Hints:
The structure is a single chain. The chain has a single domain, classed as ABC transporter involved in vitamin B12 uptake, BtuC (Orthogonal Bundle). The chain is built from 14 helices and no strands. It is mainly α.
Amino acid sequence: MVMKPWKILIGLILVAAASIILALGSGSIRIGWAEILSGKASALDYELLLHLRLPRAINAFTTGALLAMSGALMQVLLRNPLADPYVLGLSGGASVAAIGAMILGFNATGTSIGAFCGAMLSMFLVFGISGFDRQSRLLLTGVILASGWGALITLILAISPEAQLRGMLFWLMGNLDNASSSYPGLIGLAAGLIFTLPIARDLNILSKGDHLAGSLGVHVSRVRLQIYVLCALLTSIAVMTAGSIGFVGLIVPHSLRLLGAGDHRILLPGAAFLGGAFLVLADTLARTLIAPQQLPAGVIMALIGVPMFLYLLAKSKMP
């Protein structure tokens, strides 16, 4: 079913708003919305709402939005509607650096900085080895580097003290519980929209092929370089905030294309709203399914994402 673009965007904005409201009201402790709105709620209710649930909902939304936008860009970069933002090994590099920071005793801020540095190191390694204009070599280098990072993570976990293993495993499975600040995600999301929307028309043409784009006046090398850097930055900020969370960048852009949002002027902001809402709902389930205990949001995302991906693959017209 193909919908009009403005209807898609309005619907996604409403879905995103509803997901955040649901996240704020869900948990092991009930919040009285009537008391909150009338100003008669207790100090505990305000503390729970403003300092625990709201920052976590913002982090979940921005992380999902960043991954979805990165996935949309990666699918243009590789001209594959089922490409994933982690395909270049960024997540693996971030994970190695983050669990290394945990072993050294750094706090949540230090771990986040380590994750960011690891993702950027992975980006420089991939681009330094494969170059910026060799698409097949880029993908192969990223896959091999991701395998190497995975082996290194296994080695680190095998020799780590048992007291730190649980925290490391939760982070590796995608966990929004330890995010130290909402500002990196908000700044990254704003920067992503600011830098991608002006080149949305070029992305539409580039998705048809480099030769056609060049003949129509698109500076192919420059646009591809912008995509590389933006994908790396958006993914690294997402990993820095919540660890490794899969399927958002894979499913969300592909779903929007099936709905008719193929124009990147609609696809990119739409992916931000839908990806953010998707991860907010997954994190809400992670917090409430076995409350007061919590599950990693990445596990819930995978349980939802696998059947959804298979359904979308069956509905798509890919050969």
